[in-house]
Amino acid sequence: MDCCRGARLAGSVSLADQAWALLLQLTFERVHAHFATVVAELDLAPVHARALHELDVEPPISMRELAARLKSDPSNVTGLIDRLEARGLVERRADPNDRRIKGLALTALGARLRERLFARLYSAPPAVAGLSEADQRALRDVLQRLLSMSSAYEGAA
User: Is the CATH number 2.40.30.170 carried by domain 46-123?
Assistant: First the structure.
């Protein structure tokens, strides 16, 4: 398998570009497939799973906040919440300080489904679990540094 074809086609074969190409390949080929399988098993659409990931029982958050977290237009969140509410997974609660504002929170059923979602999503697949403990630690540490560096660069931009 040509892991770095995309990097070469983009005109680069640097070590950093090869590593990035491998991360993209892993994401496109494995992570997306894993996510799609898990959400289908739980009878969720991907966007429903993302909403469950962002919501909690307490404290409720506004539709606008959920839209921002999902990187979606607030008008799209209304239908999404309608579908989750119809399944008994989410409820709208009046804000105690302003009854015009509705907060969104998971119901007990929604919280249980989110626990199942997290248990499946965040359990290491065999390819990661099969690595030696030293390799798992090294992979975790490099990915943590990469995420930290990415956040720092985004903050500077």
Answer: no
